[in-house]
Amino acid sequence: MASQNLSGGDIFGGGEGMIPSAVGGYEPIVITDADVESNLKSLSQFEIYWRRFRRHRLALIGAGTLLLLVLMAIFAPLITPGVGPTTVPAFELGVPLGGAAHPPTLDNFPWRIFGTTNMLNYSILAQITYGARVSLLVSFLSAVFTTIIGTVIGSVSGYFGGWVDNLMMRITDVFLSIPLLPLLITIAAIYAGSGSVESIIVILSIFSWAGISRLVRSLILSLREVEFVEAAKAVGVRDWRIIFRHILPNVLSPVIVTLTLFIATFVSLEATLDFLGLGIKYPTISWGNMLTNAQNDLLVGDWWWAFFPGLFLVITVLAVNFIGDGLRDALDVRTRID
Amino acid sequence: MAITEVSQNQQGAAPPAGSDALIDVRNLVKYYPVTGGIFKTKVADVKAVDDISFSIKRGETFGLVGESGCGKSTAGRAILRLHEPTSGSVYYDGTDITKLSPGEMKKLRSKLQIIFQDPYSSLNPRMPVSDIIGEGLIAQGFRNRREREEIIAFYLKKVGLRPEYARRFPHEFSGGQRQRIGIARALALKPAFVVADEPVSALDVSIQSQVLNLLRELQGEFNLTYLFIAHNLPVVEYISDRVGVMYLGKMVEIAESKTLYHMPLHPYSAALLSAAPSPDPTVRRQRIILVGDVPSPLNPPSGCRFHTRCPIAQQICSEQEPPLVDKTGDGHYAACHFSDRVDALIKGQTTIVRGAVIAQQGATEQRLVQASDTESAAL
């Protein structure tokens, strides 16, 4: 029956392994080394991602800047040897305290490059390098924890469905419906005594994951039903491989992009909390509480105490946003690599 | 005939399976539970496929038609156990695959393949073509990368694509090319049976014919058996040897393709055929216009499921479900109490009555009888 159908047209047929020839008639399919060689050399996924990222100039600048900031935080004691955020540099010891802040100058390089504080003649340079540790640590860790909590809850919810999904999404609803800042103010007020770095990280991560869990859940719900997952099942691919090769890669790229944006959000959120006096407490220095301490100085015109921590905050947020932008392009398969 | 009686008793009406049947579907049922309330208890079933039986011969193309939501795609997926059937059996080459363990099923997967409707969502956008096609090969035990690439290159050439396309990603291809990749993925495992789930309905007309011809060509070359699901009747007529018509989860008619198109024995098939546009503008045909929507598969009508929209329905149609029986003795199955009146319906010798069927029953019956009298007199 089927072979009779085939006789209906001369445009096909030709038998096993034959294809229509360019010169008419049929020719056998010949697979040469050349057909296969180039495919064997194809790039791995990470090489492809890196090549795409590399082409994004702003993202590279952002990544470079962020690397410098991280190095600055790690090597703070080497940048300002012998001078901590709350240490008075030796040459300042004779200078009277209070009201005698120095504007940025190259004298006594590098201690006064960003100026000094007016209270105790602390070096703003030292405060910024040490403050970077706290600010970057809080924002990176909070963003990572937020993403992990959100991804796990969203995946479980989307994958298992049913009452598990229902329960988790109602909890998510609760977290989504609370306005973040008033809540953080309340929690921080209860915590007020400590104001430690750890507590700020915990507070930020616990109250920010709801959005990500919604995102991940919706992605998994739609991916579970998508035809390429069915196709993979139809060719006998194992469940774990379907999860790791088909579902997760399609979930991870939006999640990674969201993660970078969370870093930027948390850098400024942590600064906001500090500024409101609810975050990291003196004598631990962060960029946020430097701004808090600078409030009165701004009024008398000592702009440098507020300007430099603010500048570093802006640079960090911009750098991370550029990286997020670059990652979005790098992880998008539609971006060409060459 | 004995077999026919048995199947009548089963209410499922399995057409007798010949020894040459590659796929034999028996009383296949697929319900999707609908849950509601706080505790997510089951409140109803969507009866997507409700007790269908048919068999497909080796090397044959079996077309499955019906309007959207009639359960034809669900049937295709349930046969492959992509969606686990609620009950019923599917015999592949004599083995009931619904009873196989996951491990045994995985081994058999290479023999049972599927081509999807949507060439966009059926290819993972993050995978290059060589991974898309090669994945099944890995799953079936081809560990050597070079060997895989050779097989991939072979099938890419076979479906009319260049082997170097293997490095590209799906978004770099047109719809027709993507569908060819989907076909290559299915073929690379050397299947015996392929479910083609509306493989051309997402493509534009010029590409449709290319892909249809490719499917026919491959069928001859690899000795494939197709279950061809579609709603485009001319396409199904072109490619199928036999056709099954589904309505609301039930199989209402099975016949040789030519027979069905010239002499349908179920009013629903007749209505479907009359709705298909003809390329010949001089042909005037009686249109059988169905009124209303398909009833909900949550709560299908009693008796014959088509009786709410059937132009020739009678009292009995709402009371008794007509079994799918061989009406002509040569393999033309129809599930209709009045299949002998369908011909008159097509020729426009019946006044179309809709809605208040039962109220007008007497009058309708009379007209119908007259119609069939005229018919026999003409003969």
CATH fold topology of the largest domain in chain A: MetI-like fold
- How can the largest sheet of chain B be summarized? 8 strands, mixed
Return the structural class of chain B.
alpha/beta
CATH topology name of the domain at 20-240 in chain B: Rossmann fold
Order of helix and strand elements from N to C terminus of chain B: HEEEHEEHEHHHEHEHEEHHEEHH
Rg of chain B, alpha carbons: 22 Å
What is the CA–CA distance across the termini of chain A? 50 Å
Topology of helices and strands:
The complex is a heterodimer of chains A (338) and B (379).
Chain A lengths: L1 H5 L11 E3 L5 E3 L4 H8 L4 H10 L2 H18 L1 H4 L44 H37 L1 H16 L2 H12 L5 H10 L3 H16 L1 H8 L4 H37 L11 H7 L1 H5 L4 H28 L7
Antiparallel strand pairs in A: 1-2
Chain B lengths: L1 H9 L10 E16 L4 E17 L3 E5 L6 H8 L7 E6 L2 E2 L5 H7 L3 E4 L13 H11 L5 H14 L16 H13 L5 E5 L7 H18 L2 E5 L3 H7 L2 E6 L2 E7 H6 L4 H9 L49 E2 L6 E2 L7 H5 L14 H18 L1
Parallel strand pairs in B: 3-8, 3-9, 6-7, 7-8
Antiparallel strand pairs in B: 1-2, 1-4, 4-5, 9-10, 10-12, 11-12
Helix pairs in contact in B: 4-6, 5-6, 6-7
Descriptive report:
- The complex is a heterodimer of chains A (338) and B (379).
- Chain A has 338 residues and is mostly helical.
- Chain A folds into 2 domains: 31 residues, no CATH class; 287 residues, MetI-like (MetI-like fold).
- Chain A contains 15 helices and 2 strands.
- Chain A has a two-stranded antiparallel ribbon.
- In chain A, helix 3 packs across helix 15 and helix 6 runs antiparallel to helix 12.
- Chain A is elongated.
- The N terminus of chain A is likely disordered.
- Helix content of chain B is 33%, strand content 20%.
- Chain B has 12 helices and 12 strands.
- In chain B, the strands form 2 sheets. Chain B has an 8-stranded mixed β-sheet with strand order 6-7-8-3-9-10-12-11, with helices on both faces.
- In chain B, a hairpin with a 2-residue loop joins strand 4 and strand 5.
- Chain B starts with a helix and ends with a helix.
- The N terminus and C terminus of chain B are likely disordered.
- Chains A and B meet through helix 1, helix 2, helix 7, helix 11 and helix 12 of A and strand 6, helix 4, helix 5, helix 6 and helix 7 of B.
